[in-house]
Automatic annotation (TrEMBL):
GO terms for molecular function: pyrimidine-specific mismatch base pair DNA N-glycosylase activity; uracil DNA N-glycosylase activity. It comes from Vibrio eleionomae. This is Mismatch-specific DNA-glycosylase. Residues 7-144 form the Uracil-DNA glycosylase-like domain. Keywords: DNA damage, DNA repair, Hydrolase.
Amino acid sequence: MLDDILDHHLNIVFCGTAAGAVSAKRNQYYAGPGNKFWPTLYKIGLTPRLLSPSEYRSVGQYGIGLTDVVKGQSGSDADIDFKSSNPQVLREKMLHYQPKILAFNGKKSAQVFLGKTRIALGLQTDMIGKTQLVVLPSTSGAANGFWQESTWFELAGLLDI
C-alpha cells in the first residue's frame, strides 16, 4: 500500500500494523480521522512543527522513517490477514538501515513482528542488531480507550530530545 520511508542514519522508524482504510485511499501514512500520530510527533518534539499526513515523505529530514509490518493490505486489524505478513523482510530492512530505534505504533504490530501474544509497552529486551525496539500505544482513533501519551514521552527521552 504505502511505500516505506527508510534511509541510513535514521533516529527512529515507526512501524504500524498496516495502512488503515483512509490512509490507503489517500496514499498517506496516519491519515485517518482521529489519528494522533502527527500531533504526537510534534508534541513530543520529534518534528519542529505539526506535519500533515500529506507531508509524510518529508519525515526523513527529521531522522524519522515509516513502515508497516504488513504490506499490500489495508483496513482495520480485523480486515488484515496477518498470516501473510513476513516479519523477516522487516527484520532485514532494519539490519540494512540500522535506525537507533524501531518503534511499533501499537501492540498488534509488535505482536506480529515478534511472534508473541503478550507484549508490554515501552523499551523491549529484544534488539535487531544495534536497533532498540519500543512498543507504543497505538495512535489510531479506534484505540483511544487505550491511549497513554506518557509512553510516547518516554520514547522522546530515549532519543535525548
